[in-house]
Amino acid sequence: MKKLARVFAMLLCVCMLATACGGGNTPSQSGGGSAGTSPVKDTLVVAVQADMADKDPINGSTTNDTVKVKAQVYETLIERTVPEQEYKSLLAEKWEFNEDATELTITLREGIKTHNGETLTAEDCLFSLNCLRESANKSVTDHMDLEKSHVVDDRTFVIVMDEVYMPVIANLSYPTCVMFSKKGYEENNGDWATMDIGTGPYTWGDWSIGSSIKMAAFGDYYVEGQPAIKNLEFKVISEDGNRYIEVETGGADLCYNLSGVDIEAAGANPNVEVFREYTMDNCYLSFNQRNEPFKDVRVRQAIAYALDIEGAWKVCMDGVGQPAKGLLPDNITDSIAKTDSPYHVDYPVYKYNLEKAKELLAEAGYPNGFSCRYHVGHMALRQAYGEFFANALKQIGINVEIVALDAATNSQALKVEHNFDIYTWGIAATNGDIDFANRFFYTDSVNNIFGYSNPDMDAMIVAAAKEIDPAKRSELNAAIQQKALDECIIVPIYQQEDIYCYSTSLQGLRNGAYQSPLLKYCYFA
């Protein structure tokens, strides 16, 4: 499977070199075609499994369905490329640390326009970072001393660090770390539902909630020739098979989240291409450790032993992805030191063992089990896993009520209200640096949904983030993951895989970080 993913990635790279470098070679999309030919399409229709939760790029939802949409409207200073896992210029033309890595000087590209007609400045960028610091996703600004950070000139500013923190470059590539117009934000009183103040290749159009999201190409985008396609439409189609049918019948040009049952049909269709690539995400099951009985590690371990991870994958995944091999996917490497040292620990800890599960549950004082709620969210796949695991847990006396909510309501219940017992979510080094995943286990992290707190773990995470020696950092990160497994903070379930299908008439498709295709490179042949 990994070989196949690499082949697709190489083919896409060849396509990018031929069609998208610098924007100047992007085919023209103008005109209505010559006599006897059909006009070139000017709208790219994308079939998606769920609507976005909101328009707020900094304080809103970070579910993948939502970020895939917002990534076309908002941009970060730095981008992480895939599959290369390199950090490259986006809004920032260049960046440089001082000698002791306590200051980071960033210079913007010249002439970047925001959607409200302003020129993006260094002041806008520091304002954006300060807004992010006050948001639910504030962890991206960890160790930035924004009071001491300052503007040098219109295009240059300095981020002052409160201590050495090597993942700061990676954090600046995270999808909530977007830059926008200070003037536009203040004029609209920070109402993301009504303002359009980003810098991305597309601007907001009509949003018919639950049905479709429309966008238009931004005429003042700073890369000449991009985007090539004038309009985008994200069409919400929750039923997996129907998304593929939309592409097959011409109702859509691109389908996200192609299901396993449709892969064979898509592969046999000469008018459809299939793209597959393992992500840097593992899906996991975890527990609300603020409350009994999940404060007890023996209860958590009992549930882990009761889950047949391999069997669940065979039943639920239709050949997509793979069962989790460790706490994190094994395609994560040291992006800072540029080594191949793996930052994952193999996962032999909790092999499927019902007798061991019953024994641990009895030791914890629950010989007859208990009842709990399992939040599975809106995705059909996670709901399928939820049903499989609910049936499995019955065998050790745990009665599970499945709770399936839309993305926004589910996120509110988990991350704000903490109103759940067990749940399924994703863990990843989303920004390319392992520290992002480690922070899930840090006491004060916004990603610490499960309520785990351990001073020793906190100290290990801080030490790893400061360490620049690759061998020492690798050892620290391995120890963090081993501790997380031993204490059964989460139960890794499966590694995710991006699978898209698209019409052969659509060219230039390029996957970006956070599994967000960069549609500005696409054009119709």
From TrEMBL:
Lineage: unclassified sequences, metagenomes, ecological metagenomes
CDD domains: PBP2_NikA_DppA_OppA_like
Keywords: Signal, Transport
Gene3D superfamilies in alphabetical order: Dipeptide-binding Protein, Domain 1, Dipeptide-binding Protein, Domain 3, Periplasmic binding protein-like II
Gene Ontology terms: biological process: peptide transport
GO CC entries: ATP-binding cassette (ABC) transporter complex; periplasmic space
Name of the molecule in the record: Glutathione-binding protein GsiB
UniProt xrefs under InterPro entries: Peptide/Ni-bd (IPR030678), SBP_5 (IPR039424), SBP_5_dom (IPR000914)
Naturally occurring in which organism (per UniProt): bioreactor metagenome
Family membership noted in the UniProt record: Belongs to the bacterial solute-binding protein 5 family.
Keyword Transport on entry: yes
GO molecular function term, any single one: peptide transmembrane transporter activity
Residue span, Solute-binding protein family domain: 87-445
